[in-house]
Amino acid sequence: MGLENPKIIIVGAGIVGASIAYHLTRRGAAVTVIDGGEAAEGATARSFAWINAWSGASEPYARLRHHSLQEYRRLQHEFNGTLPLKWCGTLVWKSGPEETEQRARDQAAAGYDVRLVGPDEIARIEPNLRNPPATAAYAPGEGCAEPEETTRMLLQAAQEAGAALMHSTPVDDLVLKGNRITGVRTAGTIIGADTVVVAAGTGANALAATVGVDAPMEPSPAVLAHFRWSGPLIRAVVINPALEVRQITQDVIVAAANYIDDSEENSPEAVAVRMLSQIRAGFAGADMVQLDNVQVGWRPMPADGLPIVGFAPKMSGLYLSVMHSGITLAPAIGRFAAVEILDEVEVRMLDICRPQRFLS
Fold this sequence. Notes:
360 residues, alpha+beta, FAD/NAD(P)-binding domain, Alpha-Beta Plaits, 3 domains, eight-stranded mixed beta sheet, six-stranded mixed beta sheet, 20 strands, 29% helix, globular
């Protein structure tokens, strides 16, 4: 942007906002992160936290997600190996073998490290898995990130580089002068900035709408349950038609499933009980796994499923960063956003993410 030490406000202290703050401060920007609650309190805290390229439905989107996995490895190096990442691989299968095989072949043809595995290799990868499928896909370079700790470490590094963090400070609206965003208003006070980054998760659309910008996004619910256990049970991230499950520590297992409806039989508690039954039935030695807690996480899901990233159209000074999954994409988005904001260079890998696609 041609300014020395530009002032940048980031609205949202989840993992995406934290990554953007980290990358901007490392390049000398004067950053203030503002959040209506606490850091990593919203969607970040209620994420299954699988970092993967598998969920990229299109080749350009899968390429962005795959690149972000490499960015995680770069961050791990910058943090001297202290980020809570686990490269445990992903074992995934769909309802039918044809769908699993086709998806794995498509990804492998695009150059990603995904291969089809049969019962013998499945047993080696996940020895406690009962009744494994005839065919699964295995992506050894995928894994998981503990989202709250990762977010706090990114924010701490940003603060050590000079960033300010304002929590419990709701942003009421954006300040627009002419066709330029010049800051934010909170509790009647205007805080000025050269650029405002909206990384506010499920609150992003409402905030952007205060200046007439459309970032269509729907909060998408998912059920997240934690289970008590002692000892190694699950090695990889296991994704199947019934649930997603992984082991966080020797004592904690986390599983996720789609939120169905608000009926009693599909309440979060009922879904968690079903997940508990699936874990006990699906893994040898899991008879004593116990349900600890269950939550509903609200994921910021853009209308077309693709991230919304880039400068807002028809005005200057407003940069949008709204997506699912922020856990997977945070390191790439943080680095790319810093390039676009500070160097005024568009990163081609973000072409599929531009807010301009929603202009009528």
